[in-house]
């Protein structure tokens, strides 16, 4: 007998539809899965067999062929177990499910028939809605995230034993959609912990206000890592649509178990990370750290310790706000609008060439700093030289709190959104929008002078303008004045020296 069921396979962040076709016929007993399954899909045979038997069903002693269509697309992961089991029960006459075709099923099976959670339930529910499915049967744990999709009924299932009731039309309560925490993480580290360092504080505020990338260079123990970890707390809260994008990424990478953490994502990968780990890749393509940091902060601590080719790989995502992974089977786009924050010592010993105690040879320093190639440096908006805080600063009162700084940042963002459109910041301005910036003649001549004297790249010129626009937004000024331009150039120290 023949039976079919609808399910999905996760590919990057997207769910692709798969039709499970099962043929059970007389012959030498066997269980074959065809249609480009990966190892996890092939192992479904063992899980489905044990789950059926342990739930009191019969495993048919016949020749069973499972075809996963379309046969030309690779299928990955254990999420197709449930659909295979349901179709097998229908094909062997143990389950009568009229209208099964209006349902989609996804879930991993445990050997005792429990339905285990899967990755990407939100993307799967959205894909089911787009394909016109009436309802989607999913592991109970994935119910709340899938309910975020809306427009498709979510039917949670805890065990294979619940299938016959479902086929008879009995459906439990629909799960409540996951609450998206848009505000700030309670108890998150506060910027008040950073004492002194007024220049660094100003740079953090400007970076957060305009979504600009930032590089801090300074000796060990000056507070660079401390400052970076406080950045999400001064950034504006996520908008509804942004929180949904973040939830989609958390769901696809299996990190939504305990709900979506409050606040913006903050990722700080270790410097030994591979290019695929940072940018994304592999087969099937998995999102990398840049995608996990979407709408948040990607912090590269000890930047010069990262392998050069890994850093070079950052250039396209920084520019385009998305990663494109091309495989023979097609191209996937993974979003990655993140704020790059990096920290580095000035040389291997950390003291800096200007320090008389610095023991590094010129060639060592050159090699160390060479990691930050001209091209990547060109894409970083703010460059801050951090020095050791003075004794009275480090022993002094705490700095201004995150809440106070965030208020100014949010006001500056509102001005940007009024000018550029919802959710957009100065760092994302197109070249045409940069040209539209209202500039004081004195500010224009300051920039033009620097451009010709320091032989800036066209990109550096535009970046300086974007930064000056943010400084003006923080000051509430409609027009970029000479003072704002000077501040912006000061924050891009590379252009000044
Ligand atoms: N400006 C500061 N205000 C308050 N505490 C500070 C400051 N600078 C350093 N500290 C203290 O020193 C610790 C180390 O600072 P942090 O890890 O940020 O240094 P770093 O600049 O990242 O050094 P490295 O280059 O070695 O990574 C902090 O956890 C904090 O306790
Ligand atoms: Mg550090």
Structure explained in plain terms:
The longest helix is centred in the C-terminal third of the chain and has 19 residues, at 402-420. The protein has 497 residues and is an alpha/beta fold. The protein has helices spanning 39-42, 44-54, 81-91, 121-130, 143-147, 163-167, 198-210, 224-229, 240-252, 275-279, 289-292, 308-312, 315-320, 362-370, 374-378, 391-394, 402-420, 431-435, 441-453, 458-475, 482-491, 493-496, and strands at residues 2-11, 14-25, 30-34, 63-69, 103-105, 108-109, 115-116, 135-139, 153-157, 214-217, 266-267, 280-281, 286-287, 297-300, 322-327, 330-335, 339-344, 382-385. The radius of gyration is 27 Å and the shape is elongated. A hairpin with a 2-residue loop joins β1 (2-11) and β2. The protein has two domains: 2-167, Ribosomal Protein S5, domain 2 (2-Layer Sandwich); 191-392, P-loop containing nucleotide triphosphate hydrolases (Rossmann fold, 3-Layer(aba) Sandwich), CATH 3.40.50. The strands form six sheets. Strands 11-14-17-10-18 form a five-stranded parallel β-sheet. Strands 1-2-4-3 form a four-stranded mixed β-sheet. The model has no long low-confidence stretch (mean pLDDT 89). Bound molecules: adenosine-5'-triphosphate and magnesium ion (MG). The site of adenosine-5'-triphosphate has 16 residues, from α8.
Write the SSE topology.
Elements: E1 2-11, E2 14-25, E3 30-34, H1 39-42, H2 44-54, E4 63-69, H3 81-91, E5 103-105, E6 108-109, E7 115-116, H4 121-130, E8 135-139, H5 143-147, E9 153-157, H6 163-167, H7 198-210, E10 214-217, H8 224-229, H9 240-252, E11 266-267, H10 275-279, E12 280-281, E13 286-287, H11 289-292, E14 297-300, H12 308-312, H13 315-320, E15 322-327, E16 330-335, E17 339-344, H14 362-370, H15 374-378, E18 382-385, H16 391-394, H17 402-420, H18 431-435, H19 441-453, H20 458-475, H21 482-491, H22 493-496
Parallel strand pairs: 3-4, 5-8, 8-9, 10-17, 10-18, 11-14, 14-17
Antiparallel strand pairs: 1-2, 2-4, 6-7, 12-13, 15-16
Helix pairs in contact: 2-3, 7-17, 7-20, 17-20, 19-21, 20-21
Bound molecules: adenosine-5'-triphosphate (ATP) and magnesium ion.
